[in-house]
Design brief:
Elements lengths: L6 E4 L27 H10 L4 E4 L14 E5 L4 H17 L4
Antiparallel strand pairs: 1-3, 2-3
Helix pairs in contact: 1-2
């Protein structure tokens, strides 16, 4: 019998403002960003004190030809709550001016 994974998979497509919900975006457009990267998702998850791991060589199933990578996050809350919190953190990080 297969055991359930203790991690949630987060793909960059979940946060991409240029994708529709049908194409894989999971957050409202007001929380989505342009061209999200796995590194950005990982950094946001770590700032939120989530146990996250990067897996660069994976492809989002709907876009199997693009190796966008994925981030695996330990289950601590519902997936939608984790996705929204990370999306808000990504927006906040992008709005802070760099030195």
């Amino acid at each position: 019998m297969k055991t359930r994974s203790k991690r949630q998979v987060l793909w960059p497509a979940y946060f991409d403002i240029h994708l529709s919900r049908a194409e894989g975006r999971m957050v409202p457009k007001r929380f989505a960003v342009e061209n999200p990267t796995c590194d950005e998702i990982l950094a946001s998850a770590e700032r939120l004190k989530l146990d996250a791991r990067l897996d660069r060589e994976k492809s989002f199933p709907s876009h199997w030809w693009k190796k966008t990578g994925r981030v695996l996050v330990a289950k601590s809350k519902r997936k939608q709550e984790a996705v929204r919190a990370i999306a808000e953190e990504m927006r906040r990080a992008r709005s802070v001016p760099r030195k």
